[in-house]
Amino acid sequence: MMEGKSECEVARYYGVHRKTVKKMCQYALSPGYRRKSEPVSASQKLAPFIGIIDVSLKADKQVHSKQRHTAIRILETITG
Question: Domain extents for the chain?
Answer without folding.
Answer: 1-32, 42-79
